[in-house]
Specification:
257 residues, alpha/beta, Rossmann fold, six-stranded mixed β-sheet, 10 strands, 25% strand
Length: 257
C-alpha cells in the first residue's frame, strides 16, 4: 500500500522539518434548524498528525468532516486541506490529495471490490501499470482478494467498510477524513487497518467511541457548544489520569480552559 504522496506540497526536507499545516479551518459555522452545530470552528492541524474528533453533540464532528470533504455546506468560514481551499468549485488535484470515508460506505452494491478500487484509481488519474499494482496491493492489505470479483451485495458490512477505506487510500491522499470508520471490525482489525502509514499523511477520525481509537491517534479534539473546546496531545489524558472517553475529554477541556 502506498505510504506518501509524491506531489505533496511539503515534500522537501525543509518543509518536513517545519511541519506545515495540513488542515486549516477558519471561523467555520453551520446552523442546523435554529441551533449552531458549528459556531466559529478554528483548527490548524500539522502534517502527519493522527487526530480524534469527538463532540459533546455527537453530530458535530461528522458534520465538520462532511464540510471539509465538500459533501455539506457551511454557513460561513473556510477550509484548506493539503494547501487546497475548497469552495464552490473542486480544486485541481483534490481527488488525488484528499480521501474521505463516511459512516455509510457509499459503494454501489452491484460493483465488486476490484471494480470499486479501479474506479477510485481512474477518478484520481492513476493509469497504466501503476493502477493495477495499487489495486492488487490494496486487495491484499485489506484482505479482499477472496471476494475481489463478487458483487458487494453478497458481502457483509465489514467488507463494505474495508473496500471503502481501501478505495479512499488508493490515490495515496495527503489528508484522510474518516467518519466512524470500520464500525463492524474487531478491535485488532481496526487497530491494524487504521494505523495508516505515511509520515506526511494527516488523518482525522470522527468517532462517538473515543476509546476505540486508542493506539491509533496522537491528538484529540473536542467540539463543545459549536467550538473547539480542546485540542491537545493524547498524552495529556494520561498526565491527568483521565480515560480516553467523552467524559475524560470533557474533564481535560475543563482543566485547560
Amino acid at each position: 500500500m502506498p505510504t506518501s504522496t509524491p506531489d505533496a506540497l511539503w515534500s522537501s526536507p525543509a518543509a518536513g522539518r517545519l511541519r506545515p499545516v495540513a488542515v486549516e479551518v477558519n471561523d467555520l459555522a453551520r446552523w442546523v434548524g435554529h441551533q449552531p452545530l458549528l459556531d466559529g470552528i478554528e483548527l490548524a492541524v500539522p502534517v502527519g498528525t493522527r487526530v480524534l474528533l469527538a463532540g459533546v453533540d455527537a453530530e458535530a464532528p461528522s458534520l465538520l468532516l462532511r464540510i471539509m470533504a465538500g459533501l455539506a455546506r457551511a454557513d460561513r468560514g473556510s477550509v484548506t486541506l493539503a494547501g487546497l481551499q475548497r469552495g464552490s468549485a473542486i480544486p485541481e488535484g483534490w481527488a488525488r490529495r484528499i480521501g474521505f470515508v463516511g459512516s455509510d460506505p457509499g459503494i454501489p452494491l452491484w460493483m465488486t471490490a476490484a471494480e470499486s478500487l479501479d474506479l477510485a484509481a481512474r477518478l484520481s488519474g492513476i493509469e497504466g501499470p501503476d493502477r493495477q499494482r495499487r489495486i492488487e496491493e490494496s486487495l491484499q492489505h485489506f484482505q479482499l482478494g477472496a471476494i475481489r470479483d463478487r458483487p458487494l451485495q453478497h458481502a457483509g458490512r465489514i467488507i463494505l467498510e474495508r473496500t471503502a477505506l481501501a478505495a479512499a487510500l488508493l490515490p495515496d491522499p495527503e489528508v484522510l477524513l474518516l467518519d466512524e470508520p470500520l464500525r463492524s471490525a474487531t478491535a485488532p482489525d481496526r487497530l491494524r487497518l487504521l494505523r495508516i502509514p505515511g509520515e506526511r499523511r494527516t488523518v482525522l477520525i470522527a468517532s462517538r467511541y473515543p476509546a476505540q481509537q486508542g493506539g491509533i491517534v496522537d491528538r484529540v479534539i473536542l467540539i463543545r457548544d459549536g467550538r473547539v473546546a480542546l485540542h491537545a496531545p493524547i498524552g495529556e489524558l494520561d498526565a491527568q489520569r483521565l480515560p480516553l472517553s467523552l467524559r475524560g475529554l470533557t474533564a481535560l477541556a475543563d482543566l485547560v480552559s
